[in-house]
Amino acid sequence: MEKAIKKYFPIFALPTFVAFTIGFIIPFILGVYLSFCEFTTVTDAKFVGFKNYIRIWGDATFVHALWYTALFTVVSVITINALAFTVAMLLTKGIKGTNIFRTVFFMPNLIGGIILGYIWQLIFNGFLLQFDRTLTFNSAYGFWGLIILMNWQQIGYMMIIYIAGIQNIPGELIEAAKIDGANNRQLLRHVTLPMVMPSITICTFLTLTNSFKLYDQNLALTAGEPSNKSEMLALNIYNTFYTRNGWEGVGQAKAVIFFLLVALIAIVQLKLTTKKEVQA
Amino acid sequence: MKKKVLGKLLSVSLVAAMSVGMMTGCGSTETATTTTETTQTESAAKTETAVTEAETKTEDTAAATGKVYYLNFKPEQAEAWEKLAAKYTEETGVQVDVQTAASGTYESTLKSEIAKTDAPTLFQVNGPVGLATWKDYCYDLSGSDIYSQVKSDDFVLKEGDEVKGIAYVVETYGIIYNVDILNDYFTKDYAVVKSVEEINNFDTLKAVADSIQENKDDLGVKGAFTSAGMDSSSDWRFKTHLANLPIYYEYQADGIGSTDAIKGTYLDNYKAIWDLYITDATCAPTVLSSKTGEDSVAEFALGEAVFYQNGTWAYGDLSSNGMADESLGMLPIYIGAEGEENQGLCTGSENYWCVNKNASEEDIQATLDFINWAVTSEEGCTALSSEMGFVCPFKAFDSYPASNPLINIANDYVSNGKTSVAWTFTTMPSENWKNGVGSALLEYAQGTGDWAAVETAFVDGWATEYAASNN
Prior knowledge:
By secondary structure, chain A is mainly α.
């Protein structure tokens, strides 16, 4: 049987592989190639070497977007994970209505980013109007608005992962710790946290990449206003592509750099957190 | 153990079967590229061949006569175009597809559509700057029938001797006003003028607006001007259309038609009119960033404001919101430039038809026939002039007056000898320039930035954007 699987492996893998090639590998290679070209449409590209990459650094909005995104990522990774973990801890204590709470917390995650962005825009603007302000008055409003939105959307999802992790902790470990006289804080620090490390790895990975790649919510909430000051990287790339004649290649070059950045950060993060994982 | 392996095998094959099904779904347009080699489900394979056969059949008939694919820019007229296309197909048997890009996405839609095998044969550019992007795709129209129908060369885009684009609609904008409220105002003792004819320069406009704003409760309005919304549905009224005036006057003064570096001679006037818009308004300037185009339409239609800067295309929105034709009037946008007493409305076009050079010869011919039919035949002219409400710069349209009252107002200005302001905003160096000016305007309005930032975005931004787009 094992042999049969090995023998037919290429056939079984073929459909997925073909789909992966068409949907991912070819566009990816084409994308990297286009970042070295000047083009109006993807079919009439003219090779220009590193010109696009050099032009990026003359674009102040890119550098701003980079820092803005980095700051956003740091804040949102911390807040989302801290809150999601807290909620997960509370909802594994066996209080009444746990399942209802879990469902309610998870639900925002089922709504699409664009819709969420517009809904929150209405809420924020409705609130800020009391003070004769709007969300796009200042990029700080947009920043915190986005943080609140992302927390609201992602906490439920991360919470589910943390709950699974917490429930996987063998009861005898906790019992043994209690018998040894560990108080709640020690229990959390020396038993629970090390044991849910795999969940933390997944959750930080997800929140990190999600925040870095954020596009829909950014577009719907502020669209980069005012003056591109609340514009994150993905939106900046899109805008570069379409708002200036002859800059399509520059947008493409930014996208390549963006990919390298996300990949690099994600790999480093994975390495760091998996190191901390322990076996029970 | 064996059972487990079998189960795994089953799930793997299920996944395989599923992905085959998925790919037949998207494979239908790719004409049988992949997949079939692994199909266990014969029915899936059968439907696929059936689809392919059907497609080749339609292609065969189409290839004989050529077909038209029009990527339309104006969502307001999407339905009317589809109707007209259907009529043409009925009459001649030539297939005409009309697709309309969603508002604000024309460039991105065009970019992806034109790279396809079935690319648009007819598309639009917005003027000289748009043409710079697309000139390699434009068929030379100088020998075409439709070119012989254009009233003058003012309405075509040329590159050297080649005619690359032909304007099919001419539009006009200015300050639309509510006749009823303004007449009411003229009867009051605080009125600074007694008739609308007296408003023929910036100072008078400002005096009128100021006194309306001061007595807004007595007049039952919320402000003189509708909110100058800087949401993307409305900000083009200021960063593009309003900015046209200082550029126009600078070009006039320097005797040029475009430039690689603007001087900003009339920026003080731009500031004056912008200040007027945001102070004598229905809302506080700090909330402008979220005010939309619909907001200002609503304010104007409900009689909450007297003045509303927009153009002939706004008629549909206004009348469907309950504005009567006779309550609509239009004033030129005065910015305090010298000799503006003779200034008319801003008239021009940012809708130029271009024919895709890379389309097959039959398709090009079919497209040329279609557009020529649209501007010469009775059906075409009626549809364009009354259903779509266009003013078209073609000879046949002299006998088809537009039904849009704003257009008639615009015509009156011309026949009264006022000088129309040309649309110079088609020479703005890039979208990015407009965005920069728009953002600076907004920041100035809400008090988070100063006017110097607008000047920088306007003058320095022009030079950098011009350089960035043209090297």
